[in-house]
Amino acid sequence: MSAQHTPGPWRFVEASQTIVSNQSHPVARLSEPFHRQCHGGRTGNDGPLIAATPELLADLRVAAAALRDYERQHRTKGTADSDAKAEVNAALAGRFERTITKATGSAA
Questions:
Q1: What is the sign of the dihedral through the CA atoms of 82, 84, 90 and 96?
Q2: What residues pair up with 13 in beta bridges, in sequence order?
Q3: DSSP label at 4?
């Protein structure tokens, strides 16, 4: 079962501490106590990062797929150097895929 989320892009509205969808529907609201607790009184907050989540997820999927493609290309060469490169690509793609699964509840 795949986790569902509001499609992006999202944007952060600082005045209301709200993340809104492209249609200006609320997606999330950062609470003031949460904001203070996370930042210990420092300026700034997580709103812009949270608002970028749909784009980050899309980019992570593209990167994981590219790394798997590079892994396949290196494995077909069959040299020690290309096998080592394939392993590096596979490890990084695996990390990205686990993050995607964690974020969405489904495989990359």
A1: negative
A2: 18
A3: P
Helices (H) and strands (E) in the chain, counts: 4, 3
Residues 63 and 24: their CA atoms lie apart, in Å, by 29
Ramachandran bin of 55, using left for φ above 0, alpha for ψ from -120 to 50, beta for the remaining angles? alpha
For residue range 63-81, what is the model confidence (pLDDT) as tens digits?
A: 999 999 999 999 999 999 9
Kindly report, residue by residue over 16-31, the tens digit of the pLDDT.
Answer: 889 999 888 999 988 7
Enter the pTM of the model. 0.78
Q: Other CB atoms closer than 10 Å to residue 60's CB: what's the count?
A: 17
Burial per residue of 16-29, b for 16 or more beta-carbon CB atoms within 10 angstroms, e otherwise: ebbbbbeeeeebee
Please give the single-letter amino acid code of residue 105: G
- Phi and psi at residue 4, to the nearest 5°: -105, 145
